Amino acid sequence: MTPGQGGRVSRATDTAMRGEDPAGPPPAADGQRVLRLALLGDGESPHLLKWARALTQQPGMELWAASSRGFMPGFEPLLAPARRLALGSRPAAGGGNAAVLRHLPRLARWLRQVQPDWVHAHYLTSHGTLAWLARDLLGAPGRLVGSAWGSDILVTPERGWLWRRLTRQVLRRCTLTTSDSRVMAERMRGLGAAEVMVFPFGLESMPPPPPAKDPDLCFANRGLEVLYAPSRVLEVFSAIVAAQPEARLVVANDGSLRAAMQSQAESMGLAPRVRFVGRLDADAQAAWYQRATWYLSLPSSDSVAVSVLEAMAHGMLPLLSDLPANRELVRDGVNGLLVGAHQRPDPQALHALARRAPAIGEENRAWVASHALFGPAVQRFVERLRDLSLA
Fold first, then answer.
1. How confident is the model at residue 155 (pLDDT cuts 50, 70, 90)?
2. Which one has a higher pLDDT value, 39 or 151?
3. Which of 32-46, 97-111, 361-375 has the lowest mean pLDDT?
4. What is the pTM of this model?
5. Which of 15, 132, 201, 295 is the right S-S partner for 311, CB 3.0 to 4.6 Å?
6. 11-204+373-390 adopts what CATH topology?
7. Rounded CA gap, 179 and 110, in Å?
8. Does 299 have pLDDT greater than 60?
């Protein structure tokens, strides 16, 4: 019997459908029972897929997943169709969507069939709300764990009292939450979160050391939307051009402000130096990380961004917004620069970094290898879930 047909799906039935050993997933190394965890998030996001990959590598973990939309192809080798639920909604990026909430009864039925130990919601003001209501209103099983992604904590609660109250309600119902920065964790505690684990949403593995880099090449790949301030990217790049007359910028990704950014580059006389390459796959993006020396990320609000960690892992020099989370990664003038909202990088500081670029690149790579690999962090997360399961 599969989800949607009624009744709980037993471990033996689920594995038999896939031709696996009916004994189910291998037990944890210490002999503890298997943990059954249901991911709840956007299955079309590479971030949720990354969590799924990491969790399936943990001993004694039985993973299921429900998506507010569909699933990326990368889920197929990880989870059989019987372990996935696609709700098929089209939520807006801001979270707290009525389109998602319409699927609440269906999600609750699925959770009653799966009987998870934990429901792990990603992006708190949409999927966290869905998990909370499924449990508290419709009696779905599973204790709640929530992972904040950034704007759900740093932006959404500031929209008004209703959003703030919603965020508080979700956080207070989570036994455990995760944050990718200390500053966001403090905000979560202030909103009512009890226990918060802090670890970067880091890399799954380290890339190879970069070859000789182009000292004049800059790379930016945040979304071309208001939050990521693409106009600031061009302003900061113009300061680099003043210090390095041969500087060039590659702009990856896309968004509603692409045309405006292209027009701005024209008006600033930068168009011959700026190349727009659109959305890239992982290999193409890695190739630009490997070649470029400077990485530009200037959003108005941010937690610890995966793209910044990727750039540092490729030996790049980050030029970032002067935000609290970025101060957890960059010591201004030492391994990168922090640029205030209405400031331009100091030419002398740029020259000083450029002279030490290879050494700084090695230092940034070493820091990521020691502090920002995802697998070890997820292992600690699962160990904590086991401890809490015994409480």
1. confident
2. 39
3. 97-111
4. 0.79
5. 295
6. Rossmann fold (3.40.50)
7. 27
8. yes
Domain spanning 214-371: CATH superfamily: Glycogen Phosphorylase B; (3.40.50.2000)
Quote the tokens at residue 285. 């993006």
Contact 306, 201 (CB under 8 A): yes
What are the extents of the domains in the chain?
11-204+373-390, 214-371
Token readout for 288 is 């630009």
DSSP H or E stretch at residue 66: strand 61-67
Whether 214-371 and 11-204+373-390 are alike in CATH topology: the answer is: yes
The answer to whether 68 touches 130, Cβ cutoff 8 Å, is yes
Written as six digits, the tokens of 390 are 């015994």
pLDDT, tens digit, 9 for 90 and up, residues 171-212: 999 999 999 999 999 999 999 999 999 998 899 999 999 988
Q: What are phi and psi of 342, to 5 degrees?
A: -120, 30
What CA–CA distances, in Å, run from 388 to 58, 63, 129, 166, 383?
17, 18, 22, 25, 9
Please say whether the beta carbons of 217 and 248 come within 8 A: yes
